[in-house]
Design goal:
184 residues; 2 domains; four-stranded antiparallel sheet; 4 strands; binds protoporphyrin IX containing FE
Length: 184
């Protein structure tokens, strides 16, 4: 993944465990201390960093990935990409429907990247069915953290229900989402 993703992992670790925590994590993962944000790195580096955090701090991998999703929205996307976020959508549902379009538009900056893809369907009961397509295993808790923080950004309350893989025949991970105004 591009260096900016690994730098987000680094930012989260430094926020939680300080510089010495990061030194432990990247050394144990055999990864550099810093990443060039616009350069691609092998996915195994990102997975090794996550594995190293889990081991070093006895963290739960799913909780950590969820927190990383929240960190990406709260500390990176809304701070450094605010314009892109508002151009992509002004409501949570509108934004999620445009996510593929957004990742496609920034391909020019990340020529060799492999962004995920999200197919969105509004069900008759108004729940959202979101299908997440990716070649990378195990990132569902990251995706849930991203959506949870995005909903808060749009001042909406989100309830996510994961759908078991064997209930649909699609090569994706499926989520059902109920979106309501935060004041409800
Ligand atoms: C705000 C600006 C954003 C930028 C600049 C951005 C950019 C990127 C980049 C560079 C990657 C790494 C892909 C690679 O190196 O092959 C990535 C991955 C990813 N992005 Fe985005 N992204 C943004 C917002 C979002 C949002 C809002 C979501 C979802 C709610 C999202 C979902 C993901 C996921 C799940 C991945 C992991 C890769 C995978 O699942 O295969 N991104 N993004």
């Amino acid at each position: 993944m591009y260096g900016m993703v690994n730098n987000a992992v680094r930012g989260l670790v430094i926020e939680r465990y300080g510089d010495s925590g990061w030194a432990t994590v990247h050394t144990q993962a055999g990864a550099p201390a810093n990443f060039a944000p616009m350069e691609p790195y092998g996915d195994e580096i990102t997975y090794a960093l996550v594995g190293s955090i889990v081991k070093s701090f006895n963290a739960d991998a799913a909780v950590l990935l969820h927190e990383l999703g929240v960190y990406w929205i709260d500390k990176i996307a809304t701070v450094h990409y605010a314009e892109m976020l508002s151009a992509t959508g002004t409501t949570f549902v509108g934004f999620v429907k445009n996510l593929d379009h957004m990742h496609a538009r920034i391909r020019v900056n990340f020529p060799s990247y492999q962004p995920p893809s999200f197919r969105v369907l509004v069900l008759p009961d108004q729940r959202l069915q979101v299908d997440y397509y990716s070649d990378r295993p195990g990132l569902m808790p990251f995706v849930e953290g991203l959506f949870a923080a995005l909903a808060r950004h749009f001042k909406q309350r989100l309830v996510i229900e994961p759908v078991a893989d064997d209930t649909h025949g699609m090569p994706c991970k499926r989520l059902l989402m109920t979106v309501e105004p935060l004041s409800l």
